[in-house]
Amino acid sequence: MQQQQIEKLETISGLSAEDAKERLVESLKEEAKTQAQSYINDIMDDAKLTASKEAKRIVIQSIQRVATETAIENSVTVFHIESDEIKGRIIGREGRNIRALEAATGVEIVVDDTPEAIVLSAFDPVRREIARLALHQLVTDGRIHPARIEEVVSKVQKQVEEEIIETGKRTRSTSASTACIRNLSVSSVK
């Protein structure tokens, strides 16, 4: 009976049982491939999205870490002193000396428990350098009081300004010489 049904189906469809099986298998294979490719695409999209989010998170963390380190590095100078006793002299009675130094230089001076060091904090590197040089002269000289602080800071400011101007002149003449050399043609060098 089963054999008769198979023969009837073969005549109606115009296909042999083997051909029908092959077509069915091919059809199922194609459907399976399509579904598998769809699953693969979904998994790839999820992986790309996750990777993109993770990469952005890592980049943001790195930028924040570097930005913080750079901001601190570019706004702080550590002034080393020989002994902690000098800290008291820099601060002065009731903080007069340190306030005078901060007012004259525009730099925040942090005196804390750090042994043999004072932190000079300002975003302007020129002001920090003026404060550092003035502190160095005051500590070396030993006379630290508000009037002397103003005098030394004024003198150091002039020195730093002159040094900046001289450096600018040297840089300009060096870059002008370099530009002239670059503009020489090969034939004029021979």
Description:
With 190 residues, this protein is mostly helical. The protein folds into 2 domains: 1-74; 77-183, K Homology domain, type 1 (Ribosomal Protein S8, Chain: A, domain 1, 2-Layer Sandwich), CATH 3.30.1370.10. The chain is 76% helix and 7% strand. The chain contains 7 helices and 3 strands. The protein has a 3-stranded antiparallel sheet with strand order 1-3-2, covered by helices on one side. Helix 5 (125-141) packs across helix 6. The radius of gyration is 40 Å and the shape is rod-shaped. It starts with a helix and ends with a helix.
Detail the topology: elements first, then pairings.
Layout: H1 2-13, H2 17-73, E1 76-80, H3 85-91, H4 96-105, E2 108-110, E3 117-121, H5 125-141, H6 146-183, H7 186-189
Antiparallel strand pairs: 1-3, 2-3
Helix pairs in contact: 4-6, 5-6
Keywords:
disordered C terminus; 190 residues; mainly alpha; 2',3'-cyclic-nucleotide 2'-phosphodiesterase; hydrolase; 7 helices; 2 domains; Ribosomal Protein S8, Chain: A, domain 1; 7% strand; three-stranded antiparallel sheet; 3 strands; KH_dom_type_1; hydrolase activity
Give the radius of gyration: 40 Å
- What is the approximate shape? rod-shaped
Number of strands: 3
Q: What is the CATH C level class of the largest domain, in words?
A: Alpha Beta
Largest sheet: 3 strands, antiparallel
Strand content of the residues, in percent? Answer: 5-15%
Please state how the strands of the largest beta sheet are arranged side by side. 1-3-2
- So, the CATH homologous superfamily of the largest domain? K Homology domain, type 1
**Spans of 5+ residues with little confidence (pLDDT < 50)?**
185-190
H-E string: HHEHHEEHHH
Overall mean confidence score, pLDDT: 83
What is the CATH fold-level name of the largest domain? Answer: Ribosomal Protein S8, Chain: A, domain 1
Number of helices: 7
Helix proportion range: over 70%
Could you say what the CATH architecture of the largest domain is? 2-Layer Sandwich
* Domains (count): 2
Organism: Bacteroides pyogenes JCM 6292
Pfam families: KH_1, RNase_Y_N
Domain K Homology: 73-161
InterPro entries: KH_dom (IPR004087), KH_dom_type_1 (IPR004088), KH_dom_type_1_sf (IPR036612), RNase_Y_N (IPR022711)
